[in-house]
């Protein structure tokens, strides 16, 4: 059964406890927990970056888009946010160690062998880390 716009609006209004018309991090975290999901702070921060397109809090329109989006084909802007979130040291690349850390944050830990196989496939210049150009090719064929 598909969720209706009326249900999405009711959920947004219930979560927007300060009635500002925008969801802040605390309200969005409450939304995530209401559905029984145990997201890490890192995951919640990433979801907020993806949902909040203009950086001023998650509006109803942004919330509706986020809820209805299947997230299997992120936009280029969303991919850039994911890349920056995975680049834990901020050096402009995603290393093997960062991939392992992120996989643990997501509660889907990868073994060293799995990370090596992943890097063999996507690290086309064999530098030992993924640059933005290599990272985006994971999703954009």
Automatic annotation (TrEMBL):
Gene Ontology CC annotation, any one: organelle
PROSITE patterns: EF_HAND_1, EF_HAND_2
Protein name from the UniProt record: Calmodulin
Organism of this sequence: Anaeramoeba ignava (Anaerobic marine amoeba)
Gene3D superfamilies, A to Z: EF-hand
Any one GO molecular function term: calcium ion binding
Keyword Repeat: yes
UniProt xrefs under SUPFAM superfamilies: EF-hand
InterPro entries: Centrin_CML-like (IPR050145), EF-hand-dom_pair (IPR011992), EF_Hand_1_Ca_BS (IPR018247), EF_hand_dom (IPR002048)
Residue span(s) of domain EF-hand: 3-38, 47-73, 74-109, 110-141
Keywords annotated in UniProt: Calcium, Repeat
Keyword field contains Nucleotide-binding: no
């Amino acid at each position: 059964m598909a969720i209706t716009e009326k249900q999405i609006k009711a959920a947004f209004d219930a979560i927007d406890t300060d009635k500002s018309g925008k969801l802040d991090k605390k309200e969005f975290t409450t939304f995530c927990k209401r559905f029984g999901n145990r997201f890490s702070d890192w995951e919640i921060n990433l979801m907020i970056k993806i949902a909040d397109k203009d950086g001023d809090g998650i509006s109803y329109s942004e919330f509706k888009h986020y809820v209805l989006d299947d997230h299997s084909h992120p936009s280029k802007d969303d991919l850039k946010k994911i890349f920056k979130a995975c680049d834990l040291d901020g050096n402009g690349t995603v290393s093997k160690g960062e991939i392992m850390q992120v996989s643990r944050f997501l509660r889907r830990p990868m073994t060293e062998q799995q990370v090596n196989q992943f890097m063999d496939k996507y690290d086309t210049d064999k530098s030992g880390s993924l640059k933005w150009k290599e990272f985006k090719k994971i999703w954009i064929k």
